Amino acid sequence: KSTLLAVLAGELTPDAGRVKRGQTVRLGFLRQDPEPVDPDLRVLEAVMVIAGAIELDGKLVTVSQLAERFGFTHAQQRQQVARLSGGERRRLQLLRVLAAEPNVLLLDEPTNDLDTDTLAALEDLLDTWPGTLVVVSHDRYLVERVADTVLAMPGDGTLVHRPGGVERYLADRRSVGRPARAGSALPGSVS
């Protein structure tokens, strides 16, 4: 799944076929493993190297306001990147991706390492995202909430359209005799 996103992002060449990207596409890619950020920068500085303000929901929002929306208090915004926890680094990576104002977001397991408050803020943002989202996630709730179209990668090299979403996918698996517990993760969903 991560390889598919890397191909879509133009970081890898496909084994066959080609990837066509429109001229107006501004791609944002949140990788499963956070990109390194200069550890000596402060949180706000690490985002401001991308942009000082962005348009969000039709309003101009400062990077500081966006950082606050994702759980960084004013004091934490002045903290050095080197002192951030794993979850805080994930939030910082998300802020940096959003600060570039992409119109296409590629998100690889975006909920990894997020606390419940940040997860709720992310879901709210993605639920109203005006651009295109491609989300790879095992988080069934996130997929159901933000995806209009669900595709499954069942592990045999195919990509299967799932018009009924994750719940329908699990019901279909149960009906063909493949056990799927209600709490089990969807094996490789792309939305």
What does this structure look like?
The chain is of the alpha/beta class and 191 residues long. The protein is built from 8 helices and 8 strands. It has helices at residues 2-8, 43-48, 63-69, 74-77, 86-99, 116-127, 140-146, 165-175; strands at 27-30, 53-56, 59-62, 104-108, 132-137, 151-152, 160-161, 189-190. It has a 6-stranded mixed sheet with strand order 1-4-5-8-6-7, sandwiched between helices. A hairpin with a 2-residue loop joins strand 2 and strand 3 (59-62). It is globular. The model is unreliable at 180-191 (pLDDT under 50).
**What is the mean pLDDT?**
84
For the biggest β-sheet, the strand order reads: 1-4-5-8-6-7
Uncertain runs: 180-191
User: Biggest sheet, in brief?
Assistant: 6 strands, mixed
Which range does the strand content fall in? Answer: 15-25%
Output the radius of gyration: 18 Å
Number of strands: 8
In one word, what is the shape?
Answer: globular
Topology order in helix (H) and strand (E) letters: HEHEEHHHEHEHEEHE
Structural class by helix and strand composition: alpha/beta
- Count every helix, treating DSSP H or I runs of 4 or more residues as helices: 8
| Cα end-to-end separation | 11 Å
Relative helix content:
25-40%
What is the element layout, followed by pairings?
Blueprint: H1 2-8, E1 27-30, H2 43-48, E2 53-56, E3 59-62, H3 63-69, H4 74-77, H5 86-99, E4 104-108, H6 116-127, E5 132-137, H7 140-146, E6 151-152, E7 160-161, H8 165-175, E8 189-190
Parallel strand pairs: 1-4, 4-5
Antiparallel strand pairs: 2-3, 5-8, 6-7, 6-8
